[in-house]
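Re: the multi-chain job from yesterday

Posting the exact lines I submitted so nobody has to dig through the queue logs.
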Amino acid sequence: MLTIGKLSQASGVKVPTIRYYEEIGLLPEAERSAGNQRLYGRKAQERLTFIRHARELGFPLDAIRDLLSLSDRPDQSCAAADAIASAQLAAVEARIARLTALKAELERMLIQCAGGVIADCRVIEVLGDHAKCCADHAPSGHLIEVAG
Amino acid sequence: MLTIGKLSQASGVKVPTIRYYEEIGLLPEAERSAGNQRLYGRKAQERLTFIRHARELGFPLDAIRDLLSLSDRPDQSCAAADAIASAQLAAVEARIARLTALKAELERMLIQCAGGVIADCRVIEVLGDHAKCCADHAPSGHLIEVAG
DNA sequence: TCTTGCTCCTCTAGTTGCTAGAGAGATTAA
DNA sequence: TTAATCTCTCTAGCAACTAGAGGAGCAAGA
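And the result, structure tokens for all chains:
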């Protein structure tokens, strides 16, 4: 049986994050020691590893919840898991496409910025005037990809 | 003079978002009508357009704040704006690289999932067992890119 | 003039996926 | 025993908004 700190080391998931996962029901409530400290066995460790890998692959927690409930019923068809992974793949591809367009536009801005003065700065100018940028940005609700 | 709704239409930024920008000081406090409604002139509209473009290019609000304060002093060197844009470009490139790796791994998972039963499902298996996936994921604090 | 229907106001709270900190108790090594 | 290092619960905070309540402003038609 591991305490939460050991589990954290073993899994690469931080202690508060483990507690958070328990709180939102991704992990079952842990057993407790006599002194009320959480204790984890091998099953919990595997489940946490599963969650970490899925997070690393960009799956949102809701999708992971679904995948976990699927993996609890190993006799069922793989189709649902496949669908979740496919959706994630499509999302990743869309983000790559979007970011690639952003990259091109940033590069264009920067190349034209010849190191002068703000008044002539392409960066400022392009941001201030839509006519000076090339890509068409659909006016979407959620605009962006922000650095993490 | 535009009311907030017209400004929203003109700029493509939602009404509550405009108020939010004012609250956090990205936009100056708007003039008010006799009935306490916000009124905007051309300057505010330009500033908001600037913000929207920058957001679309993925600049975080803090960087936009810096860019705006730069653009208020047009005699200064362009170097600071250039640095901000370069940092953003680097961030975008890093995210593309990361996402491209994720994409490859997701594709590998999916190709091997032959439409069987959960027990044999590659998706579940790979997520549950790190030995079955190829890329080395450094155990980083902030793990992921999550779909927006 | 009144009413209808839209906009606008402020305020609070929720989203996602955590992270940070306070103040107190548990456990372990010297 | 005592000190150091966990661990506990709780609250609050991060980005960048979004949603909703409850009330007021305003333009146009009957």
